[in-house]
């Protein structure tokens, strides 16, 4: 692996595609499942017209795709277009969906699962902290300390050196620990 000339600690900013940006806004696993199934069907059999048309007459499709603005933005990013007003969507012949699109949807589902788990763990931790009397006492003490510090007068002088030794200062060479063998 070669060196690309980047300074240590610097990362190259990832450029997300319009599809990936649209997928990041979806907050429902079921929606991602349906969009993935629709995309996978088109990828498997791109010439079958039944996979290139969806209708809002299906209650599940209506609820998860047509009634969700974020899902609609994903469908539009995939190349789907509205037909017959807003009751039907079709994918034109020139719009090509690939397995890369399916993988992007799967990655979005994994990312969503992680985000939701992290949010759940954060809520659990916060509830535990709120119930812990030791943590509550510590928070109260911190607030009291903040109030005390703000009530003090401001510091107007710098610090001064204070002589602390009363006797002779001993150096490392005085006790034979200077690191040389004495030769």
From TrEMBL:
It holds the Pfam family PUB. Residues 29-91 form the PUB domain. Residues 140-166 have a biased composition (Basic and acidic residues). One of its GO terms (biological process) is defense response to fungus. InterPro entries: PUB-like_dom_sf, PUB_domain. Residues 140-183 are annotated as: Disordered. This is PUB domain.
């Amino acid at each position: 692996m070669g060196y690309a000339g980047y300074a240590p600690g610097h990362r190259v900013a990832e450029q997300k595609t319009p599809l990936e940006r649209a997928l990041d806004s979806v907050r429902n696993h079921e929606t991602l499942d349906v969009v993935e199934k629709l995309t996978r069907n088109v990828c498997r059999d791109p010439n079958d017209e039944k996979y290139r048309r969806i209708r809002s007459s299906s209650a599940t499709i209506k609820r998860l795709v047509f009634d969700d603005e974020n899902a609609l933005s994903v469908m539009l990013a995939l190349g789907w277009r509205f037909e017959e007003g807003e009751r039907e969507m079709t994918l034109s012949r020139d719009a090509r969906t690939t397995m890369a699109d399916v993988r992007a949807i799967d990655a979005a589902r994994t990312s969503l699962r992680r985000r939701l788990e992290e949010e759940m763990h954060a809520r659990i931790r916060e509830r535990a902290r709120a119930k812990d009397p030791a943590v509550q006492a510590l928070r109260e003490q911190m607030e009291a300390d903040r109030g005390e510090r703000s009530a003090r007068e401001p510091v107007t002088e710098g610090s001064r050196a204070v002589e602390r030794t009363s006797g002779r200062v001993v150096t490392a060479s005085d006790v034979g620990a200077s690191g040389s063998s004495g030769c």
